[in-house]
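Recall that a protein's primary structure is simply its ordered list of amino acids. Everything else, from secondary elements to tertiary packing, is in principle encoded there. The following example makes that idea concrete.
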Amino acid sequence: MTTTGTAQFASGPASPARKPYDPRYDPLVAPDPGAGRAYAPTWWVASAGAPPEDDGPVMRDIDVDVAIIGSGATGMSTALYLAQEHGIAATVLEANQASWGCSSRSGGQGQNASGRLKRSQWIARWGIDVARRLDAEIRGGFENFRHLTTQIDCDAYDGGHLFLAHRPEKLAGLESEARVMREQFGYDTRMLTAEEVRREYCDERETAGAMLEAEGVGIHPLKFTFGLMRKARALGVKVHTSSPVQGWQTIDGVHHLRTPGGTVRARRVAVCTGGYTGQGLNPLLRNRIMPILSNSVVTRPLTDAELEATNFRSLTFLTDTRTLRFYYRLLKGNRLQLGSRSSVSGADAEDPVHLKLLTDAIARKFPPLAGIPIEYSWWGWVDVSHDMMPRITQPDAGKKIWYAVGYGGNGVSFSTWAGKRLAERVAGKDSGREVFELPIYKSPLPFPNVLGLVESPAFAPFRRIGQRMLYKWYWLRDEK
């Protein structure tokens, strides 16, 4: 078994030498994600082609109207919609390379979802009326994403989503959710037997059956975000790479964002940093999300004999019903991609046990592929909010700061719609509109909750202890 690195690209008028990728970076303990670091060694980076031209690092003090922190799908779509719909050419600040964080490491599974909660859980939390309004909003976001994938060359496959029961006792829950999707929200969601999954999609040996959602588009996430970036820059957006925000002061209502090459003075700031939101970026975001590591692998291309043995007949993406779920699919070019949660901290991320978790899963799910060479192996941080739902909001009405974070691993499709809504908020087009009364828009991200009490921010680092215990419990519950 081998892993490989990837080519690194240079762009921009003053691109500095790339600093090595840091595989141990951890946003819960590191002051910032670095400056000018190379991309993680992902299949997406290796196959995306050269990044779009950028504007290089900030090299002097500058004054801007709107600064956007983060150049992933949320940041670039926010910049695109600000320029396209509101005539505002924002300045994007990226710590490392363009789309360096989630957008170059995710699974690329564009689901009709956002956050970790299912629609039945929306009903339980907010009632059917709010749940239906939230569904309309997120479904609209998915359709917007689907349309964008037809405009951007991103290897899009519009084949729906299979949610596989990894044990027979998980079928009842899937059947119940499928019924809610049909009866309460009008979706054509249906159940498949294990035999139908194996005959029509792939010979996944663990499955006991599946829920098929027609709404699902798998993409190459880095090609997609590069496409957003090209569209935004064509409208006058500036993208400064190697420009992390290392200090933030607000003086007379103007935000002074200190980068290594100069201070950016901005009237308005939108934060779109996802799982790479450092604790020291701004007090409004400190301890508001729990960064969770997700590991991914991509195999060498499958041979014709391996394709026949595994009966892959579709590029439809799949997830299973484990709490720490596996997500997987056959990619264009016949490589298998598979990912899941693993390490709790960045310090432990390189332990081979986490790679073994994924290769063991391949051997269980697709026995003919046991031992297949792994050509790309990487990990990245997911931004999980403490109530499992994202926020696209202005957390303090007295400060011209907005953020869109907390997708919990379901941001591939919704991040672009979040960028559209965030652009409306930054442009002042959200006042009095009913849609912004939805839970994901009207309140800030919550602090962690322990035993029904709001946790003290000082306690946040100790969450990792509880996370380790939860992972062990989840494993016992899912496997035993």
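The chain has a mean pLDDT of 93. The chain has three domains: 6-116+133-157+218-298+373-446, 161-214+301-369, 453-480.
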